[in-house]
Amino acid sequence: MAGYKRIAVRFLMHFRLVMHLQNKNLQLAYSTLILNYAVLLAEKKDEKGQSHVLSAALAIAEQENLEVDSRFRALVAIGSLMLEGLVIKIAMDLEVENIAKVTKASKEAKVAEIGADIELTTKQR
Q1: Are the beta carbons of 66 and 88 closer than 8 angstroms?
Q2: Residue 105 within any structural domain of the chain
Q3: How many domains are contained in the chain?
Q4: Which residue, 2, 42, 58, 114, is the most exposed by fewest CB within 10 angstroms?
Q5: Residues 82/88, Cβ–Cβ less than 8 Å
Q6: Distance CA 41, CA 64 (A)
Q7: 3-state DSSP assignment of residue 106
Q8: Which of 73, 88, 6 is nearest to 34 (CA)?
Q9: Residue limits of the PUL domain (predicted)?
Q10: Domain limits at 35?
C-alpha cells in the first residue's frame, strides 16, 4: 500500500509542471487525475494523501488561463475532499475561501456553482 502512495505523490509533483503549459489536453488529463485521486483517497480515509491532492487541486484552481473543464474538475476534487472532512482545516489554512469567492463569480455556470458549494461548505464548518 505504501508503494502506491509514494509513486502517486511523485507523479503528482512531476505532473504539476505540465499545468503551466498551454496544452489543454494535458491540463484536462492532470485535473482528471487529481479528481480521481481525491475520490480514491477519500474512500481510503488517507489524510496525508488527501492533503497532497488538495494542494495540487488548489494550485490548479488558482490558475488564471485554464480550460474550464480542468478548473471545474479541480474544484470538484476540492469540494469532495472538504466534504470528507479530513483536510478541511488544511483547506481553510490554504485560504480556500478566496478561491471559492473568485470561482463563484465565474461566467461559467458550472464553475460558479461549485464555487458557491465550496463557499457554503467553508461556512458550515
Answers
A1: no
A2: no
A3: 1
A4: 2
A5: yes
A6: 27
A7: coil
A8: 73
A9: 1-121
A10: 2-94
SS3 content of the chain, % helix, strand, coil (to 5): 80, 0, 20
The amino acid sitting at 47 is E
The three cell numbers locating residue 68: 474550464
pLDDT in tens, 65-93: 888 999 999 999 999 999 988 899 999 99
| 52 C-beta neighbours (distance < 10 Å), count | 19
pLDDT recorded at residue 38? 93
**CA nearest neighbour of 34 among 4, 63, 61:** 61
102 domain-assigned: no
Q: Find cell 472538504 and name the residue.
A: 82
Contact between residue 67 and residue 57 where contact means Cβ atoms under 8 Å apart: no
Judge contact between 99 and 118, C-beta under 8 A: yes
